[in-house]
Write a structure and sequence with these properties.
The protein has 228 residues and is of the alpha+beta class. 37% of the residues lie in helices and 20% in strands. Helix 2 packs across helix 5 and helix 5 runs antiparallel to helix 6.
Amino acid sequence: MEKIKRALGYISMAVMILVLLYVKYAYERGLELWPIKTKLQHDEVKVERKIKIPEGETMEFIQPAFLIGLCQSSTETPEDVMEELEEGNYGHELYEEAKLNEDGTRSMTVTGKQLENWISTSEEAINRRIEANKDKGMEIKINKDFTKVTYTLKKGCKKSSLEWLIDAQVIMGCLFEIQSFTGIAPEDCHVREVVKRESDGVVIIDAVSPGAYYEVTDAQWYGEEEIE
């Protein structure tokens, strides 16, 4: 692969993986999705549950249009994404109500248990990738407010640029999910991605989404060519 082009458009269906993860997770847990208490590693993500929804009540959350776009392929519309979400909800009770707003944002109404399920699934998806990438020589760190993710390529890193991009899109989607489900306003949701090599300290990518754009060749990724 010669270039990584605009990450937000390259793998447009990546965030739908979150829904599939949720469905798989629901099936494996028999819909008893309350998180299992485990000892966290220092670099693992754990979201503070600040919002509590009393039993029998629901709450509406507004998700940014950018997050909807992450789920959308070049041939799909936001309405298509909503239809796929509705299909995923059938029989799994991911949410009580979801609707597409005129400004492109999405309103989602959930119960307390559904809110917990969305957040815990995002945590698991991120932490799974943090752990898996250790063996490939890539360190992933996420700041406490979930607005910045730093990828450090260690010496001998086996992670290709394309492999990174696939993981990065899922992680980005998870971070936007976490932000929206912890009460951050759609217009304030953002994620800064930093990719750097430990060996020479070169920053390969430093971009903020929404609005991020970057192009990196494989030669630049592996340090065989300078980044302008």
